[in-house]
Write a structure and sequence with these properties.
This protein is α/β, with parallel strands linked by helices and 270 residues long. The protein has 10 helices and 9 strands. Helix content is 51%, strand content 16%. The radius of gyration is 20 Å and the shape is globular. The model has no long low-confidence stretch (mean pLDDT 93).
Length: 270
Amino acid sequence: MPVLAVTREIGSLGTHVAHKVAKRLGYDVVRQEIIAEAARVYEADTDRLVATVEAKPRAFEAGKVAARRHFAFVAAEVLNAALQDNVVVLGRWSTLLLRDIGHVLRVRVCAPVELRAARIARRFKVSAEEAAHRIRRSDEGIRARIRQFFDVEWDDPQHYDLTINTACVGVDEAADLLASALRQPSRRATDLSRAALWDAALAARVRAALKAHPDTVRADITLRCRGGRLELTGTVKDAETRDTVERLASIRAGIGAVDNQLIVTGIPTT
């Protein structure tokens, strides 16, 4: 079955749209579960994972090891969630992490700032100024994180299959539109698209496992997975680290062997 990936601006009603689509199609909506599972599997702090997704990075943090670790943990769980049938993945960079998967419909839900502020003020019973502040903080945080990890602009329409402005399209109409799009034959999963998703998910699981281990967190490794075959390239400081990488990769990928092309440099990682 197709997968729906949704990113939304705060106050755009994108969460309502996602749940409406899920109800129409009998899909599950996955959002908070991604962070919870990433925290459980990789023994990470939930608040820090949420901050890595939603909060603007501090100047000293940009490019640091911790942020990249948290990115890897969340990315692995997004791709793992997409392996399910009948699922809407809400937020968590899903529209960008799943951009190369043919049976994923990637949607951005937006609305003018003034309308979003009015909605936020009504919902949370706050002033217009406070609503505007919440919107600005949310938008700046998500936009900065997407630039940091994907080097793209969040609101660039070329990164989405559809962009829905809820100032013009109501929640029910948007849900009908997306449900219809997901039912189209062109959106059906194929053997090729499923294989691509499986390869991406496998590589992401291994990458996260390496970022979670203290001996491999700083290793300069590139992972490629094609047809279930995992290839490791890059450099490590010593043979012991090379062996640790291969062992972790084999365990996390669930396969007995990997194509380990890592080069030992003898130079300590800093």
